[in-house]
Write a structure and sequence with these properties.
Length: 260
Amino acid sequence: MAGEIFKQIADYLEAAELEKREVVKITKTIKPDLTVAEAYQAQELLVQKKLDQGHKIIGPKMGLTSKAKWDQMGVSEPIYGYIFDYMLVDNGGVVPFQIHPKVEAEIAFLIGEDIEGPGITGAQVLAKTEYVLPALEIIDSRYENFNFTHTDVIADNASTSRVVFGNTLRKPSDFDLELVGSTLSINGQIKELGAGAAVLGHPANAIAVLANMLARKGDKIKKGEIILSGALTSAVLLKVGDFVSGKFEGLGEVTFTVGE
Ligand code: 0L1
Ligand code: MG
């Protein structure tokens, strides 16, 4: 059966996540010619498995939102995945070590009204956003050495692993999100810095692209979802015991410690 191979991919990646071990990428094992559409089919099955297990979606997330990443991966659009409730860690809490975690500083959008593409713009997203808040995303590819193709990473739920949201919620109209600066420190040393403009010129643009991508499968962004718009900084590799701090201009600080 044609769909059987996508179930096999979803099972393979789910087992890697649950058993906290890295695996050989799909395009080297199960399906060398995996297309973007097929990769999203496999991702959907992985997402459905989590829903069937009782996990709840917090919101989609955007990945590969910088031009530098596109050039690196040879692509011309971002990717999306899904954040689930079991991935949330309190601000100041402990993020359990999984495989080879990396951290990114991001701006999250709490959506106030459904946003349905196609043709959505960043300005429309801002008008339908209730609040923005700071976030640290922990990505943890299930693939060996974080090595994957564009389609591999789509099937792997865009490397999503854990998320720590900050406590400061602000109206997006309060400031220019593209100018919001952020520093990312590990054990008191600044490792990366960036600004909102690193995300497709403005973080709201990434949410607009998401709405337009979801429209291709008849889906939309839903009121109440909290969406990660993409990384302001490069991702930094973490080890057990690291204390991580992301400081966001006007949006406060987000911290966590990497546990065992
Ligand atoms: O959230 C992200 O931007 C990560 C997307 C997947 C690429 C990666 O794992 O580096
Ligand atoms: Mg990210």
